[in-house]
Amino acid sequence: MDKSFVFTTPNIKYKDSFIAGIKEFQKEGRHLDVDLHDLENNFEKYVEKCDRESKAKEIDPQTGWVPQTIYWLIVDGVFVGRVSIR
What we know:
3 strands, alpha+beta, 22% strand
């Protein structure tokens, strides 16, 4: 069975499947720093943050984080994973 897949930047249309994925990760003990309540109520801001990070030009001196571009793997219209390029 062939599956349709695409890599895309974070997008609010994948909110439900992204949050479901985060819940699965947290059951495995990963991404425990993600506040699900905040994510569910402010998902648009999360997507905007991802976009800002991809446009950053240098290391953030307060956090030490470097610019990154996040791509989500979407299979048949559902978030299934992500990759971060730094």
